[in-house]
Amino acid sequence: MILSSAGEALPPLMKGPPKGQSGRGLVNTGALEGARILVVEDEPQVQDFVSRVLQLEGATVVTASTGSEALARMEDAGPFRVVTLDLCLPDISGWEVLEAIRLIPASAAACAVVVLSAGPGEEIARRSAAMGAGYLAKPTAARALVERLASFIEGCPSAGE
C-alpha cells in the first residue's frame, strides 16, 4: 500500500508480473515484503517511481515531499525499516533531515537511511557514510534500488514493526 503525503491510500497503477519474474525492468522478488519504508522525495515522478517499485516488492510505503513532512511522518507514522532521502528538498536540506532523524530515539527512528541523490557521488557517499547512511545515485534502476534497500533491511532489527 502506498500512502500519499496526506496519508490517503493510493491504488496501485499496475500489477507486476508473478513473484520472481521480472517485467519492464522491475524485480518483483518480494525482497521487501512487509517492510515499512518512508520515501522522502519532492519530485513527483521520482517519488512515484520509487514508491511503485517498493510496493511491487511487498513494502508498505509512506511518502513525504518536504523535510518537515518527513520528520512529521517519523513521529506520526513510524517506525520505518528504511528511509529513502532526497537531499534537495524545498524547505530544508536532506542533510538536516538526516541529522534530525538521528536524534529521534531508537524506538521511533528508522533503522536505515539511504540517501538518493543526483549530486557528486563520491562526496555524497563519503558524507552519507560519516552520518551512518547509505547512498544510491539517481537516476537508479529498479533492481539496484531493491537490492540496496534489501541489503539494509537484512542487516537491521525490525525497528518495532
What does this structure look like?
There is one protein chain. With 161 residues, the chain is an alpha/beta fold. It has helices spanning 44-56, 67-76, 94-103, 121-130, 142-154; strands spanning 2-3, 9-10, 36-40, 60-64, 82-86, 112-117, 134-137. The two termini are 16 Å apart.
Give descriptors for this structure.
single chain; seven-stranded mixed beta sheet; Rossmann fold; disordered N terminus; 161 residues; alpha/beta
What's the alpha carbon Rg, rounded to whole Å? 14 Å
Uncertain runs are 1-5, 10-25
Number of strands: 7
Under CATH at level 1, the class stands as Alpha Beta
The protein's oligomeric status is single chain
Principal-axes shape call: globular
CATH topology: Rossmann fold
Q: Proportion of β residues?
A: 15-25%
Write the H/E string, N to C. Answer: EEEHEHEHEHEH
CATH superfamily: Response regulator
CATH hierarchy: architecture: 3-Layer(aba) Sandwich
Quickly give the structural class: alpha/beta
Number of helices: 5
- The level of helicity is 25-40%
Average pLDDT, rounded to a whole number, is: 81
